[in-house]
Amino acid sequence: MSYSAMKDRPKYMSRIRILRQNRNLTQQDVAKYLGTSQTMYARYERGANELPIHHLQKLRELYQVSADYLLGNTGEIQERNADVL
């Protein structure tokens, strides 16, 4: 993959993977929470499919972070302490 292609990749891909792994959740766990398949969720993490807005909202709730953080618009995580799953 070229540098320009990597630069243009959405930041949410790595953010949702890291947040999931830091909470010891599987892709299946998150997919079930979102109401989608593990295969589709894995495609979001890889960037093969764009993340729908309704899934962005649910992930924001799950991880208790801002949408701006998930989208890479800010580096400030601003987590709140709440377990959703």
Mind explaining what this structure looks like?
The chain has 85 residues and is mainly alpha-helical. The chain has helices at 3-7, 12-22, 27-34, 38-46, 53-63, 67-71. Helix 3 packs across helix 4 (38-46). The longest helix is centred in the N-terminal third of the chain and has 11 residues, at 12-22. The termini are far apart.
How would you concisely characterize the structure shown here?
This protein is mainly α. It is built from six helices and no strands.
- Segments where pLDDT lies below 50 for 5+ residues? 1-6
- What is the number of domains? 1
Spatial separation of the terminal alpha carbons = 35 Å
What's the pLDDT, averaged over the residues? 85
CATH class type = Mainly Alpha
Class by SSE composition: mainly alpha
CATH architecture: Orthogonal Bundle
Element order: H for helix, E for strand: HHHHHH
3D shape = globular
Strand content: under 5%
Task: Give the SSE map.
Blueprint: H1 3-7, H2 12-22, H3 27-34, H4 38-46, H5 53-63, H6 67-71
Name a few traits of the molecule.
85 residues; disordered N terminus
